[in-house]
Amino acid sequence: PAIVSPAKGTSIAPGETFDFDYESIADYGESSYNLTIWLYTTPPSTVVITPMTHYAVGHYFGRFGVENYPGDPDPPNLMPSTLTMPNFSGSYGGFGLGSDASNQVVYLVVVEEWATG
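^ thats the sequence. predicted structure below, dont judge the formating
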C-alpha cells in the first residue's frame, strides 16, 4: 500500500484541488474494506494514529471504500480521485479549536482496513 499522488514534498496552496491516488493492499488473498484519509499537522506515528493520550491535529477528508473482490466488490463510498487542501490560516471555530497556521508542512495519511483471506 502506498500514496501514489501527490508525491512526497509536493507544495499545495490552501483551497487548491489536487490529484489523489492510493495503491490499496487489495489483491488476491488480501481484502480491503475501507480507508480513512487524514491530513496531519504533525508527523504521523502509531501513537497518533491509534491514540491513547495523544490525538492527531489536522483535517479529516473522510472514510472511503476500495472496489475489490471478495472484500468490498461494490462500495457506495468510492475513494476520490481529487482532494481539496484546507486553509489552516483561518479559524474554523467551534469545539476543540486549534491554532492558525500558514506555510505549514502537513502529512497526508491513509489508514486502510484489510484482512488476509
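Residues 47 and 53 are 8 Å apart (CA to CA).
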